[in-house]
Amino acid sequence: MPIILLLLFITGLFVSAILGANNASACFGANIGAGFVRYKTAAILAALGVFLGVIIEGTKLSRAVYHGVLGEVSMEAMTVIMVTAIIIIGVATILRLPLSLSESLIGSAVGIGIGSQIDVNWRFTLMVFTFWVINPFFSAILSVTIYRALSYITPRVKNILTLNYIYGKIASALSFYVAYVLGANTLGLISGIYAPFIPIRDISPLLFGLAAAFGMYFLSRRITESVGRGIIGLSPVTALVSQLSGAITVHLFTQFGLPLSITQAQIGGILGIGIAKKIVFMNKRKSRNIIVGWIVAPLAGATISWLLSHMIQSSILLF
If you average pLDDT over each of 21-35, 75-89, 96-110, 135-149, which comes out highest? Predict the structure, then answer.
C-alpha cells in the first residue's frame, strides 16, 4: 500500500472513530437520560450495531460518491474529500455546530468535481438533495403513527414496573438498531470512498467498523450523558419514538443508496410527536442552529473541497 494511501486510510480510521463518538448520543443518549439502560450496556450494543451495520449493509452506500456524485475515481479527489472531512469535524467540534458528516462528504464530492473538472452526476446529486429535505418530514409522519400506536397500547399496561421493563427492552434494542443504521449509511459512505483503492475488498468496512465501535464505546461517555439529560426533558416515550422513526427512515433510504443524516431524521421524529400532541417541544434557538447546520454542512464541504482542489492544481503548476 502506497504511503499516501496508508496515511489517508489512517485518516479514515480517525474520522470513523470520531463519527462513532459524536453519534453515540443519537444512538442511546436519550435512553441513558431516561434511565432505561446503563451506559456500558447501551455502549456495547451500539458498538456491535455500528460494526455489523457497515459489514452487512455498508456496501449499499459504496457507490454514493464514486459512480454516484462523481463519474471518475482519483486519488486526488479522495485526498480532498477526507481532508475536508477532518476540517469540518474539527470546526464542528470546537464550535459545537450540528453539522452532518454525510452531507459534508457529499458537498465535498460536488466541490472537488467542479474544482477539478470531474464529471458530476447532477441527476443523482439533486435526488440526494431532495431526499435530505424529505428525510425529516418522512420521519415526522412515521413518528406520528408510532406515537399514536404506543398511546393506544401503553395505557393498557397497568403495572408501572412492567411498563418500565418493556421500555427498557425497547431502549436496548434501539441502541443496537440506531447504531446499525448509522453503520450501514454514514459509515458505509466513508468506506465506499476508499473501496476503489483498497486491494482487499472487505478490509475497509471491517477496520472502519472497528474504529467507529471503538469511538462509540470509549470516547462517547461525556457527550452521551450530557445530551441524554437534555433530551429526556421531552419524555421517555418521545425519546423512544423519535429514535425509532429516525432509524427506520434512514434504514429505508439506505436500501436505495441514499446518504442521509440520522440526527436530522430524529429531529423530524420529535417534530412529528409535537404535531401529534399539539405542543412544541423544541427550543427555537437550538432548532434554528440545527436547521442552519443542515444548510451549512454541504455548502462548507463544497467550498472547502473546491478551494483545496485549486490549491493542489496551483502547486502542481508551480512545480
Answer: 135-149
Handedness of CA 14, 15, 20, 22 (dihedral sign): positive
Distance CA 191, CA 193 (A): 5
How far apart, in Å, are the Cα atoms of 114 and each of 24, 217, 220, 278? 34, 38, 36, 45
Q: Supply 27's cell numbers.
A: 444512538
Indicate if the alpha-carbon torsion angle 257, 261, 263, 264 is positive or negative: negative
Flag whether 259 is in a domain.
yes
Residue 319 lies in a domain: no
140 three-state secondary structure? helix
Number of domains in the chain: 1
Supply 144's cell numbers. Answer: 406520528
Kindly tell me the burial class for residue 76, based on how many C-beta atoms sit within 10 Å of its own C-beta (0-12, 13-18, 19 or more).
middle
20: cell is: 462513532
Q: Is residue 156 part of a domain?
A: yes
pLDDT at 54: 95
Residue 245 lies in a domain: yes
Q: Which tens digit of pLDDT belongs to each residue from 225-265?
A: 555 455 445 566 777 888 899 999 999 999 999 999 988 89
Q: Residues 184, 53: contact at Cβ < 8 Å?
A: yes
214 is in which domain, residue-wise? Answer: 3-314
Q: What is this structure's pTM?
A: 0.90
Question: Grid coordinates representing 276?
Answer: 401529534
What confidence score (pLDDT) does residue 134 get? 95
Alpha carbon 79 to chain centroid distance?
Answer: 21
User: Is the model's pLDDT at 223 over the cut of 90?
Assistant: no
Which amino acid makes up residue 38?
Answer: R
